[in-house]
Design a protein that fits this description.
This protein is mainly α. It has ten helices and six strands. Helices cover about 55% and strands about 5% of the residues. The strands form three sheets. The chain has a two-stranded parallel ribbon.
Length: about 280
């Protein structure tokens, strides 16, 4: 982008961010969808976390359209953020490893990952307050059985909240710009997997399997974490057996079971191994 200044530089950065996001989202998302939902549709019991649930054609098209709009919005927000970082130093990001050294660069990358996870957890939990859920977050939960295309199918207000939450740590914690970009790309790619509806066990030891977030869609008000379960376990908002969850059971900790309540198959303790084999990524 040498030679570009002012609004031309801003437009170029927004364009690159938008195109890059759309290519990753629909490129990788389509690969996941075609590999499982198209080629293995008749074998859903073997790979799908909710093999009996499929979105209607109308809901599927709506999910794709909303996601495309949000990815374009994400390009606008990310490109604008990058523009102000580059032209006004509007962040704590740094460009040269020598500014802080390799030890700090590695340590700060880990800290930034945890900080972005924390920001995502608390923003998500806020969206499950009754008012926020009914006004905004309910869009995302229209798909009880999510697919890769529904990863960012959410109200634009919610999408903006998550984008700003991801940017916030970079305003206060010095971190190398490559590390920060890598964390954002990591979040997008793994969110696509975690919303895929495919039974996946991640090879990364700190990362929850896809059943963790899929349970969030099944049970609604629990498992708020983005990629790791540490904040849910700290606050007691991870799904627990023997508790009742549902769309109208707010608070994150469920409600006591009553004699007439029944748990879903996964809540009864039938682990994912028993339901079908994991795919590993």
């Amino acid at each position: 982008m040498d030679g570009l200044t002012g609004m031309r530089l801003w437009a170029a950065m927004v364009g690159v961010a938008t195109l890059g996001g759309l290519v990753i989202y629909f490129g990788y998302g389509t690969w996941l969808y075609h590999r499982h939902y198209v080629r293995r549709r008749d074998e859903a019991e073997a790979w799908k976390l909710q093999p009996k649930r499929w979105p209607s054609a109308k809901l599927h098209r709506w999910a794709i359209a909303v996601a495309a709009g949000n990815m374009a919005l994400g390009g606008l927000l990310s490109g604008t953020f990058a523009y102000f970082v580059l032209t006004a130093g509007f962040s704590a990001l740094y460009l040269e490893v020598d500014d802080y050294g390799w030890a700090y660069t590695i340590a700060s990358t880990v800290l930034m990952f945890v900080a972005v996870e924390a920001a995502a957890y608390y923003a998500h939990r806020l969206l499950h307050v009754r008012f926020m859920f009914k006004r905004f977050h309910q869009w995302h939960h229209r798909l009880v059985a999510p697919t890769p295309y529904s990863t960012v199918t959410m109200h634009p207000v919610e999408f903006t909240m998550f984008q700003l939450a991801a940017f916030l740590p970079a305003l206060v914690l010095p971190v190398h710009y490559v590390s920060f970009i890598g964390i954002l790309l990591y979040a997008l790619i793994f969110n696509l997997m975690d919303h895929s509806g495919v039974r996946i066990r991640h090879m990364l030891p700190w990362h929850s399997s896809t059943s963790f977030h899929d349970d969030h869609h099944v049970h609604f008000h629990c498992n708020y974490g983005q990629h790791i379960a540490i904040f849910d376990r700290f606050h007691g908002t991870h799904r627990r057996h023997g508790r009742r969850y549902g769309k109208d059971v707010f608070g994150g900790r469920g409600a006591p079971m009553t004699p007439g309540d029944a748990e879903t198959p996964r809540a009864k303790g039938l682990d994912d191994q028993a339901q079908g084999a994991f795919v590993e990524y």
